[in-house]
Amino acid sequence: MEKVGLSVKSAMAAKSLSVKEMGIGEDLAFNLLGWKGDELVVICQLAQKYMNIDPQERFHRVADCSVILRKGWGVDAFTLMAEGYQSSDPSRTRGIPLPIAYVQPESPVSECLTFTHVESDLMMLVTVPYKQTVGRKVVYSKPQIHENTVALRDAAYPMMFSDVLENATPVEELPADTEEFYDTLVRGLEEIGFFTACE
Fold first, then answer.
1. Count of CB atoms within 10 A of residue 113's CB?
2. Residue 125 in contact with residue 151, Cβ under 8 Å?
3. Could you tell me which of 55, 19, 4 has the C-alpha nearest to residue 140?
4. How many CB atoms lie within 10 A of CB 7?
5. Which of 1, 27, 132, 149 makes an SS bond possible with 155, Cβ 3.0 to 4.6 Å?
6. Contacts of 130 (CB under 8 A, 6+ apart)
7. Contact, 46 vs 58, CB < 8 A?
């Protein structure tokens, strides 16, 4: 929970700043956090221009990124931050795309920040509903925790992260020039659309 809590606080601050500076409707890009033990060792942000591409292609870019983080940094947990929608009454919105249900009168759908966290023995979804108000402000509701994938309409991301953690083997021995090694990984991540910050 401490890992997800750090992700939530960071994203809320970034969202509030983004709306204040850019205006209502400004969404955050995907952020993928890689953990090793209790330490956050790498963060990758998908370039904004890739947020509007085909969702399947975007999924494959995130999958490629997660493999690089697993093999190169040896991460043992992932947290994906994304913007999304959630329904407080799934029976009313079943079968309706949530962005469409969101604009309907008296809709039970709200915008939210979503945090998909996966490690070897844990899979968790945390959502933070919010409303954007006049004065370029964001008002957040209480975070909601879902410790299974039932709450996800599409469980592809947590399943993919779980598969990467199980099947992608980290580099056993780093090369002598570790700086060049990580610089090469960062350049590779940039080629598939990610900006990277690492220790």
1. 24
2. yes
3. 19
4. 23
5. 149
6. 15, 110, 111, 112, 113, 138, 139, 140, 141
7. yes
DSSP secondary structure string, 72-139? II---EEEEEEEEEEES-HHHHTTS-HHHHHTSTT-SEEEEEEEEEEETTEEEEEEEEEEEETTTEEE
Amino acid code (one letter) for 46: L
143-147, 153-157, 164-168: segment of lowest average pLDDT: 153-157
> Domain boundaries in the chain?
2-198
DSSP for residue 17 = H
Give 5-24 pLDDT, tens digit per residue.
Answer: 889 999 999 988 888 887 77
Q: pLDDT tens-digit profile of 37-50? A: 999 999 999 999 99
Distances (CA, A) of 46 to 101, 170, 191, 196: 27, 22, 11, 9
Both tokens assigned to 163: 């598969």
Tokens for 138? 């964001």
Q: What angle do CA 25, 29, 35 make, to 5 degrees?
A: 140
Which of 146, 135, 78 lies closest to 112, judged by CA?
146
| Lookup result for tokens 């850019």 | 22
How far is 67 from 62, CA to CA, in rounded Å? Answer: 9
* Sign for the pseudo-dihedral over CA of 18, 199, 183, 31: negative
